[in-house]
Amino acid sequence: MTISIDQLKTMGLLWPGGLVGVILVHGLTGTPTELSGIAKDLNAYGFTVFCPLLAGHCVSEAELLQTTWADWSKSVEEAFFAFSEHADVIFAGGISAGAVLSLRLAQTFPGRIRALSLYSTTLWWDGWSIPRLSFLLPLVLRLPYIGKRYRFEEAWPYGIKNKRLRERVHAQMISGDPAAAGFAGTPGRSLRELWRLVDLVKVNLPQIKIPTLLVHARDDDIASIRNAIYIKEHISGPSRLIALEDSYHMITIDQERRQVGMETARYFVEQLSRQEKEKLAQYERKPGQLQTLLEAAEYRERPPQELLQGLSKRRNWL
Predict the structure, then answer these.
(1) 2-35 burial, b for 16+ CB within 10 Å, e for fewer?
(2) pTM of the model
(3) In the chain, count of helices (H) and strands (E)?
């Protein structure tokens, strides 16, 4: 059964454009709005962008607790199938746990996705704001009594470096409206499900043979840039790692959001044939945008050793 555009809109946020589509997946306890800025940037170049809502999100913590990683993955798969009816080419990506889910999508449907764009991919919570004993958390979550009642509370700086934006998002988080900025904390049961997903995706990383863009803040407070480097070193396909210098974890809304959108658009356009670029250009908002994008200076990729320099020192003061 064909899913109409109006039906797609009930499954998440949609920005109609041409027949080159992008699926962007939000993070655990997050909302599709955390990707709306990137979606609008891509849509300006002619892409149709779809940000699906994951199962159990944006309603209540009780509803989230009824879901597993398989339910979240199913949400992405259903969005992919429905969206496929309205696009000739599909790219995929996401932020944090959403990046892990987009990796899972590419592993599940090899050859169906043209390329990936992964933002602040979270395989480990090892950023500078995470308590040093957090490596014990998987053991704690297995305890019958404590594990069921544990809840990881969001803490300063809430993944955002921009002070004014951080204050606004924090106010939305504690307002009690999960659709505004997601939940203020993550239940231990949901964390355990995330790690099960991560374990599965990590084992199958060599199956990723498509071009992959990794965008990560060097100063990520939740998941260090080691996460992006690990993926780059373990996937089989070509990749590009872009390190941001003025953002924290939520790079899709933080201070370098415009750069994230531009680099994503450039990377995706580079994967298109000449005919596909011409078709995409028919939907760009300003004539000549795509050509200007491709002619712009490419971001210089830095070696992993340089990106890791100073990270351990920043973490030691916690």
Answers:
(1) ebeeeebeebbbbbebbbbbbbbbbbbbbbbbbb
(2) 0.89
(3) 16, 9
Q: What sign for the dihedral angle of Cα 176, 148, 120, 272?
A: negative
Q: Are 131 and 318 in contact (CB under 8 A)?
A: yes
Q: What dihedral angle (degrees, nearest 10) is formed by the CA atoms of 152, 225, 217, 101?
A: -60
194-to-85, 108, 216, 303 alpha-carbon distances in Å? 29, 17, 20, 29
The single residue listed with the structure tokens 């987009």 is: 102
User: Are 260 and 215 contacting, i.e. CB atoms less than 8 angstroms apart?
Assistant: yes
Any idea what DSSP says for residue 142? T
Of 192, 250, 198, the residue nearest 222 (C-alpha): 250
**Helix, coil or strand: residue 217:** strand
Distance in angstroms (rounded) separating the CA atoms of residues 49 and 67: 25
Could you give the dihedral angle defined by the CA atoms of residues 86, 87, 90 and 93, in that order, rounded to the nearest 10 degrees? -40
Does residue 73 have a pLDDT over 50? yes
- Reference 229, options 123, 136, 92; nearest CA is 123
272-303: pLDDT as tens digits: 999 999 999 999 988 888 888 888 776 677 88
Angle at 74 (CA atoms; ends 73, 76), nearest 5 degrees = 65
Residue 188 confidence class, pLDDT cut points 50, 70, 90: confident
CA 198 to chain centre: 14
